[in-house]
Amino acid sequence: MITEAANDVIVEPWSAALRLLMRRAADRHQIADTAAIDTLAQVIPEMAAYRSLTQRKPFELAFLTALVDDVLLPALSIAPPTKEDRS
């Protein structure tokens, strides 16, 4: 099936890398031990694939900033940067 092949080629390699990076960050106490690492490792590349393949939109700074600050950091139990930090 094409969907499975795309997942194997696009999503899974990124998921594996993200899972490893987030587990290392948890070991260093940089993210919460309770963070949903396996779920986030799947969701992050899926959101990127959806943005580029389905919506056919580019990865703009505003999108990436919102994705990281408003979705990923809270999901990892990390406070997002304040407006002053972003300046």
TrEMBL record:
Protein origin, superkingdom: Bacteria
Pfam families named in the record: TetR_C_11
Keyword Metal-binding among UniProt keywords: no
Protein name: TetR/AcrR family transcriptional regulator C-terminal ligand-binding domain-containing protein
Keywords: Transcription, Transcription regulation
Residues covered by the Tetracyclin repressor-like C-terminal domain: 3-71
Record's keyword annotation contains Transcription: yes
